Amino acid sequence: MRRDARRRHARSGRGRIVGGKAIARRLNFSQLRELNETTDRQKQPTVAPTRELVCPRSTKKKHRDTTSIPSLTEAYAYNDTLPTPSLETTKTRWRPLGPFCIPHGQTYGSGPGCRPSISGRVSTIAIDPSDPDHILIGSGGGGGVWATRDNGKSWTPTSDDQPSLSIGAIAFDPNNSLIVYAGTGEGDSTLVKEKNMLGVGLLRSVNGGDNWTLICREPFDQTAFYDLAIDPLNDKHILAATTAGLYESSDAGLTFTARRSQRTWSLSIHPVHTTDSNSTQEVFAGCLDGVFRSINGGTSWSRVSLPGGRRRYERIEVCHAASDGNVVYVFATTPDPEDENNDPIPHLWRRNVLGGAFEAVEKLPKDLVTEQSWYDWFAAVAPNNPDVLYIGAINAHKGIRSPSGIWEWENISARKYTTSIHPDMHVIAFSPGNPNVIYIGWDGGIFRSTD
Fold first, then answer.
1. What is the CATH number of the domain that holds 364?
2. Domain count of the chain?
3. Inside any domain, residue 75
């Protein structure tokens, strides 16, 4: 990056905590409770935190009311119909406070629509490939898995009986949407050594996410998930990106083998090509030590050369274009070599030909803020157009590439005249069959755009 661009990311004079407000909140939480006083000072993104073992719960199944959570208005109306107890027998009367949306949420927009209602952090989104109204979300902060079958009108928690409610990744089996996997432990929150952010293993559902079973504890106990990828041509073949490295399963998640030991943030499998039965053998992985490519489905890996790349990264997202597997993007940040206390330096690379070299994209959004790239970061290609790219950091941007290769960027989360959304972007998903319908998960919940 040119020196003038680098200066935009130099903020060491503000007296801030390196890593942004997400780090500051976690440090404050720990310090108030006298937790992790030694390890919190380290703030090392390359070292996964420790975790006390989660106490196992009884395996005996209990009946649980799965009625969808009512709206705030409905809850208040019901509460107001309750009879008032006599003074002689009056006890503390509770008024429902949630889980509901919180009105007047924070955004970086202005004007009408800049204070939408928000909820808690959503770290992962999975949409049923056979039913776009059926959506699962995961809360990394301890909310577990939530499900909707009416496109978000009502939500039901479905994993409250599991040994960990911190969720980092969810993935539907692309060939059988009754089968769903959820990785416990939220990778996005593991920069600070918080005991409760790591998980206990991999969960599986055989009824579309209504109920869950822990099917694989080792080697994922005391680690956290960033991503799960399932081979669409072999649904027993699963790859997992975690704080402890990259893992591969050939038996539908019952056992996993370590393939790389470096922290791995993201995975991307080549889309299915109707004339090539081996098309899904190409896989990209974004790891702490760079981008790696496999041509045998993830068993072995080789480093990808990136012009201007580094030996160590703050964060990497990799993504194929679903409509053209030749096209692959790498969206990453690296430490500033002049001063690592400055904001990380952003990079974007694109590949145009299968097996070809990556080229740097020089033009990035002017208002791209990388301070929390360790925590909020995503990239995804529009399903119907390899020249439309969505990237997320503190805000979300949409980029369109012209036929001549020139990029134009639009901030789609912080606007002046239309609805804005809460900052800190974690995940994006597209509705099956309609590429104009997108969902984004961030620190304020999940929002949908239809255009």
1. 2.130.10.10
2. 1
3. no
- Bridge partners, 137 (sequence order): 125, 146
Q: Identify whether the C-beta of residue 138 lies closer than 8 Å to the C-beta of residue 124.
A: yes
Q: Does any domain span residue 56?
A: no
Write the CB contacts of 77 (distance below 8 Å, at least 6 apart in sequence): none
Tokens 């889980």 correspond to what residue?
Answer: 99
Q: Which two tokens stand for residue 154?
A: 């009502």
Domain range enclosing 392: 16-47+109-449
Query: Does residue 64 fall inside a structural domain?
Result: no
* Count of C-beta atoms within a 10 Å radius of residue 339: 11
**Cα–Cα nearest to 21, from 246, 192, 241:** 192
pLDDT tens readout for residues 314-346: 999 999 999 999 999 999 999 998 888 899 999
Q: How far is CA 423 from the centre of its chain?
A: 14
C-alpha closest to that of 349 among 410, 308, 288: 308
Residue 303 gets the label, from left (phi > 0), alpha (psi -120 to 50) or beta, of beta
Q: Could you give the CA distance from residue 108 to residue 423 in angstroms, rounded to a whole number?
A: 7
Pairing between β-strand 388-392 and β-strand 396-401 as defined by DSSP bridges: antiparallel
Residue type (1 letter), 55: C
How does pLDDT run across 36-79, given as a tens digit for each residue?
545 444 444 433 332 222 223 333 444 444 444 444 445 445 55
Strand (E) positions, 11-166?
Answer: 124-127, 135-139, 144-148, 156-157
Residue type, 51: R
Give domain status of residue 80, yes or no. no
pTM over 0.70: yes
